[in-house]
From TrEMBL:
Family of this protein: Belongs to the azoreductase type 1 family.
Annotated Flavodoxin-like fold domain residues: 3-199
HAMAP family registered for this protein in UniProt: Azoreductase_type1
Upper lineage: Bacteria, Bacillati, Actinomycetota, Actinomycetes, Streptosporangiales
Cofactor note: Binds 1 FMN per subunit.
Root EC class: oxidoreductase
Gene: azoR
Name of the protein this chain belongs to: FMN dependent NADH:quinone oxidoreductase
Record function comment: Also exhibits azoreductase activity. Catalyzes the reductive cleavage of the azo bond in aromatic azo compounds to the corresponding amines.
Species annotation: Actinoallomurus acaciae
Length: 208
């Protein structure tokens, strides 16, 4: 039995296009993968740990030490977050564009789970090692925006949303990435963009 984990970064509930498109994906996935488990992780639900003390613990680990006390508790909380993420063999992220990039709660998730020995290793000669590579995990990402769109010039903003997040995924070793796009822009055909995104989501979910 497989496991699909939907990690959502929008707090807008029914008003969110990224969540709506992700629902199309998960509905199709449930229909076509009836034996698989599907879980939704709302990053706004308070489950992400604060990482101020965790950042100190990270440097303790880098130095070859074992975090103790408050650092140890923060490190354990980060580890639990990573294990929830790592337990899925199929990952769906719904990511709205905020100020040309991703919502800060998604960056918090990235910073919490991106730890030495879990996500990456570092070698002075060869650079980073990608710890999630070669494990058969697949990723789908729903990218949405309202103003910026691929055909528009820089006066309508820039895409640091998918460029940042896709780069992070590949850095972890997750390279099997499917994108679902919804960028209707201010003057585009909103309903047509919706139909296209829904068809993408459904089509990818069937073979995911």
């Amino acid at each position: 039995m497989g496991r699909l984990l939907h990690i959502s970064a929008s707090p807008r509930d029914e008003a969110s296009e990224s969540l709506r498109i992700a629902q199309v994906f998960t509905d199709t996935y449930r229909e076509t993968h009836p034996g698989d488990e599907v879980e939704h992780w709302d990053l706004w639900d308070g489950s992400l740990p604060d990482f101020a003390v965790g950042a100190k613990a990270k440097m303790t680990v880098f130095g070859g030490g074992e975090p103790q006390g408050a650092e140890g508790a923060a490190w354990a909380a980060a580890r639990r977050t990573f294990e929830r993420f790592d337990a899925a063999d199929r990952l769906l992220f719904s990511v709205p564009m905020w100020n040309a990039s991703v919502p800060y709660v998604l960056k918090q998730f990235v910073d919490v789970v991106s730890q030495p020995g879990w996500i990456f290793t570092v070698d002075p000669a060869t650079g980073y090692g990608h710890q999630l590579a070669g494990r058969g995990k697949r990723v789908a990402v729903v990218y949405t925006s309202a103003v910026w769109g691929p055909p528009l010039g820089p006066e309508f903003g820039s895409d640091f949303q998918s460029t940042f997040f896709n780069d992070w995924l590949r850095w972890t070793g997750l390279t099997d990435i499917s994108e679902i796009r919804f960028h209707p822009t201010l003057t585009g055909d909103y309903e047509e963009a919706r139909r296209t995104a829904d068809a993408q989501a459904s089509g990818i979910a069937k073979g995911f």
